[in-house]
Every structure is written in C-alpha cells, then in structure tokens.
Design brief:
The complex is a heterodimer of chains A (about 300) and B (about 325). Chain A has about 300 residues and is an all-alpha fold. Helix content of chain A is about 75%, strand content about 0%. Chain A has two domains: about 50 residues; about 220 residues, MetI-like fold (Orthogonal Bundle). Classes of the chains: A mainly alpha (about 300), B mainly alpha (about 325). At the A-B interface, helix 1, helix 4, helix 5, helix 6 and helix 9 of A face helix 3, helix 5, helix 6, helix 7 and helix 10 of B.
C-alpha cells in the first residue's frame, strides 16, 4: 500500500510538474507572441509614417482642386482627376526634360563604369611604383566637399564654351570617380588572382584580363555602381542649376523648379510631376533592390 | 589547381633573362595607362581646381572681365560679413540638430528591424529605405506641401493630437527644424548600413555574454555598441560632411528666408558666385567651409580613438 501510495504520489507530483511546465511554456509562448505582435506593430507603424508622404503626394495629385484644400483631408478623392498628369506635358517641355535627364544618366553611367573600372583594375591587380601613395590620394579625395573645386571647374567649362549645355555634367564622369574606384577595387580584390594568371599565360593581354575576365565576373559590383550613378544623376540639382540656363535643355530636376511657387495654385500638378519625376528611381529601386542593399553593405562596412 | 602549379613557371622559362625587366616596365606602363583617366581627372578637376580656387581668394573677379588683385581683403571682409556669420550660425544649427537625430533614428530603426521579435522585416526595411533614394528637388516640393501651415499633412496630423502646428518653413524659428525633419525622413540609407553592421556581429559574442550573466541592456551596451562603433563612426562622418553642405531645401523651399533664417553657407556661396558674380569672395567662402568640415572631420577622427573599436586592434 505504502509503496503504491508513494508511487501514486510520485505520479501525481510528476503530472503536476509536467502541467506546470506546460502552463509555463503556454504562458511563455503567449508572452512571446504578444512581444512579437507588439514590436512588429511598432515597426509597421514607423514604416507607415515613412511612407505617408508618398501616399499624400499621390493622393493630392489625383484630387479635384476643391478637395486639395479641404480639412480634414480626403485621402481618397471623390472623383479621380488625371488632368494633373496631362496638362504639364502640354504647358511645359516636360517630355524634353525627361529626355535630357535620360541622356545625362545614360552617358554618365557609361562613363563612370568604363573609367572607374579601368582605374580600379590597375589598383587591384597591377604592381606599380607609387601605387600605395596614389591610392591614398584617391581615398583622401573621396570625402572632398565639391564647393572648393566648383568655381574653377565652372571657369574651365565656361572657357571651353560648354556652359548652357549638358557637357559639363557628363564629361567629368569619364575621368573616374574616387568612390566608385574604391568600391570596384574592393570587389576586384575578392576575385581569385589565379584566374588572371591563367589568362595571361594563355596569351591574354592585361587589357584582355580586365575586359574578358574581371569585368564579366564583376557584374554585381558594376550593377551597384550603375544604380548609384543613375540615382545620383537623376536627383542632382546643383550641377544643372549652375550649368544649364535654357529651359529646353533642363533635366527634370531643374524643370521641376518651375512648379514651385510660394502660394501654389497648382499643387495638384506639382505633386503629379513630382511623382512622375521620381518614378524611374522607384522603378530602378524596385528592380534592383537587392543590389542597392548589397552596395550599401559593401561600401559601408569596408569603408 | 594542379594544372596551374604546372603552368605557372612557364612564362619565366619562356622569358629570356634580358627581357625580364622590360616586361615589368611594360606592366607598369600599362598600369599608368589604365589609371590615367583618374590621374588626369585628379590633376584637372581636383588638384588643379583647388590650387586655382586658393589663388582666386586673393582676387576679385567676375571671371569675364578680368582679375583684380585685392590681397587679403576678401578674407578680412568675410570675417566681418554679417550675412556670412548668419549663414554659419544657420548651418551649425542645422548640423547640430540633423546629425545626431539622423544617426540616432537610423540606429533605432536598424535595431528594431534586426530584432527577432519583428516579423516581415523585408517589407518594413523597404518602406524605411525608400525615401532616402528620392532626394533633392522632388523631396523639397513634396515637403513644402506637407509643411503647408493650413492645408498640409503635418499640421493636420498634429491637429489630430490636439496640437496647433507652427508655420514650419514660413516661420523663422521652425524653418531649420523643418529641414531637420526632412533629413530624418531620409535616414534609410544610414539605417541599411547599421543593419549590415548589426548582422556582422558574431552571435557567439552574445552567447558568451549571456553565459556570463549579462542582461539585454548590458549586452547592448558592451557587445552591440562597441561592435557597431565603426559603422556609427562612418555614418557620423558622412552625415556630418553632407549636413554642412545643405543647399537644395534652402534654395528651393525658402530661398534662404524668412529673414535669412535658412541662409546656409552653400546657399550664400551660390548667391555670391553665380548670382552676384563675386567669384573671388565666393572662393573664400568655399575655403572657409572646407576648413570647417576638415576641422570637424579631424576632431571626429581624433575622438574615434576613444570610442571606436576595431576588431583585431591592440589597445595601448
């Protein structure tokens, strides 16, 4: 009996303990879920705040005029007005501005890819006297604020008669950009040098190694550079502001300025064109989101 | 591997002794040829331009009709120029508010998104990051509308919370804080850097700290922060350099107003150079800005020895 009772007591105790564990783990799971829900909600709320200006922009751009100035605002307009997207193309050379920006971007991306990768290849792969010193100079110019060189460069381009054209905004990119050279060099260093050696033994010239081995293997890094340069040029305002005067030669960023007046009666058009002006950047971001993130990781962590 | 170890000695066998040096010389020549675009660019657009700009500081010129030597008069005049001093104050005010806020907000979001308690991080990360790729004039126009005191989003939201919002960019007091809010909106780029840094911290460090009895705050303070300090430092320097050059908002949203409350150094420089054609005087402003940025960067570099931890570095 005693044995039996003790046994039953033991069993009861064990069952109770197991139940307690189960209850505790239930509580634990519940607590965990609640925590997850809470922090996810915090993250979601924050990102809504960050996204709200975009929603506001799009909402304003399709509202009829009387609803733009209504408080509290109507997020979804009673009728959708698409005129804001059509009218500016009629009254302003918006299509031409778009084309100008496209030319600017294509030329700059090409220039930067060719020049920066060539320079980066030499820094990453060839031993030459003064390499370290030159690379140090390159690094130190990476953070140089553009204002100290701006006026002489402007003077030079004005002497060449290039002011009021897109040339001053394109030509410098063919001379390599320190930041991209650094970024590409870091990437080239991760490619195994035995590949170069093998190619050279097979009779490949140095340029051949660069063109046939390194470049094809560096598509991710080149993509990052292209995306950065694309976004930079698309958004650049200061350069065009200094160099371009004739409205028909404007890139979009500069043309947008026409839509800005203190008491704006055409806020719908302004928002519509602002949206149209950022669509390419958003599109590129959407298509190449992973590259964007990668590039920032490469440039930041190793910088 | 085996084929290469066989193949590697070959060129040395093929190469006659006398031409060994010439092959190296050829490679060096090729290297210089390869980097020549950058060398030329550096000599013309950077080194040459800087020298020229330094030279311009002792001249008065509109770059068209000639150069008039004025010695140090530009510098003396600048040190007493009330508008320049005002622009310095405005810029410092912006830097002092925008840089810490941007760094902290970006860090906070990154910590949040790096937590295993948050689900669907990819979606949130995209939304936080998106504003940072849209910059310049589009952002300025958008926020001008958001900051509209009467019909803008911002004051509407404040109104929901029972606050009567200020007149933002139209108010002397609130114009710079408005710019600060805009730059915090663009903190997504920095956030991504922090996220990358956070993901690079080995979990073993956290496990070791937990075994030693560290709670989550101690782990944050003594593992996360030191391991992340190089990223924080990098972001701090880059954000600072960028903040000193604030221009587009001031130009497009407020034109430096109201009552010069948003007259930043670069805006003043732009006006002196490209609107009033005092290129000599503008060069002095450019150099003043350059020196200020240099001083701050060097100070940060100095201070970094105290608080930035690099793995593999031996402490003295």
């Amino acid at each position: 009996m005693g044995v039996l009772r003790r046994g039953s007591q033991e069993v009861t105790a064990r069952v109770a303990a197991a139940r307690e564990v189960r209850v505790r783990s239930w509580a634990h799971t519940f607590w965990n879920l609640a925590l997850r829900a809470f922090w996810t909600a915090v993250a979601a709320l924050g990102s809504v705040v960050f996204a709200l200006p975009f929603v506001w922009m799009i909402s304003t751009s399709v509202k009829p005029r009387w609803e733009q100035l209504v408080m509290p605002p109507k997020w979804i307009p009673s009728t959708f007005v698409w005129d804001n997207y059509i009218e500016p193309f009629r009254t302003r050379p918006f299509a031409a501005w778009y084309m100008n920006t496209l030319v600017l971007v294509v030329c700059n991306v090409t220039g930067v890819l060719l020049s920066s990768s060539l320079v980066a290849f030499a820094f990453a792969r060839i031993q030459f006297r003064g390499r370290n010193v030159l690379f140090l100079i390159l690094l130190s110019t990476m953070m140089l604020p553009g204002q100290v060189t701006m006026i002489p460069v402007y003077y030079m381009f004005s002497k060449l008669g290039w002011v009021d054209s897109l040339r001053p905004l394109i030509v410098p990119s063919f001379f390599g950009a320190p930041f991209y050279i650094f970024l590409l060099r870091q990437f080239f260093l991760t490619i195994h040098p035995e590949l170069d050696d093998a190619a050279e033994i097979d009779g490949c010239s140095l340029f051949g190694v660069y063109w046939r081995i390194i470049l094809p293997l560096s598509k991710p890094a080149l993509g990052v550079v292209a995306i950065y340069e694309f976004t930079y040029n698309w958004n650049d305002f200061f350069g065009p502001l200094i160099y371009v005067n004739t409205p028909s030669k404007f890139p979009v960023a500069l043309g947008l300025r026409f839509f800005q007046t203190r008491t704006d009666p055409q806020i719908g058009q302004t928002m519509a064109m602002t949206f149209v002006s950022i669509i390419p950047v958003l599109l590129v971001f959407y298509l190449a989101q992973r590259r964007f993130v990668q590039g920032i990781v490469v440039s930041g962590v190793k910088g | 591997m085996t084929t290469e170890s066989v193949a590697l000695p070959q060129p040395q066998q093929r190469r006659p002794g006398g031409r060994k040096l010439s092959r190296r010389a050829r490679r060096e020549l090729a290297a210089y040829l390869f980097i020549s675009p950058w060398i030329v660019g550096f000599l013309v657009f950077t080194a040459g331009a800087m020298l020229f700009s330094l030279g311009l500081t002792v001249f008065e010129t509109d770059l068209l009709t000639g150069f008039k030597y004025v010695g140090l008069r530009n510098i003396v005049r600048l040190s007493k120029d009330p508008l320049f001093l005002k622009s310095l104050g405005v810029t410092f005010r912006f830097v002092a508010m925008a840089v810490p806020l941007e760094v902290i907000v970006a860090l906070a979001i990154a910590l949040l998104l790096n937590s295993d308690k948050v689900l669907f991080t990819g979606v949130w990360r995209t939304l936080y990051f998106l504003p940072s790729i849209v910059s310049g004039i589009a952002v300025s126009l958008l926020w001008l509308w958001i900051f509209n005191p009467d019909f803008g989003l911002f004051n509407y939201l404040l109104g929901l919370a029972g606050i009567t919002g200020p007149r933002w960019v139209y108010s002397e007091q609130w114009a710079i804080p408005s710019f600060v809010i805009m730059s915090v909106w663009g903190a997504g780029g920095n956030m991504l850097l922090y996220l990358a840094g956070l993901q690079g911290i080995p979990t073993a460090l956290y496990e070791a700290a937990s075994i030693d009895g560290a709670n989550s705050w101690t782990r944050f303070r003594h593992v996360t922060i030191p391991m992340l300090s190089p990223t924080i430092f990098f972001n701090l320097v880059m954000t600072l350099i960028g903040a000193f050059q604030v221009f587009t908002q001031a130009y497009a949203m407020t034109s430096g107003g109201p009552n010069n409350a948003t007259l930043t150094v670069v805006l003043y420089l732009y006006r002196k150079a490209f609107q009033q054609l005092y290129f000599g005087y503008a060069s002095v402003i450019a150099w003043a800005l350059f020196v200020i940025i240099m001083i701050f960067t060097l100070l940060m570099l100095r201070s970094s020895e105290l608080w930035v931890y690099y793995e593999g570095e031996v402490r003295k």
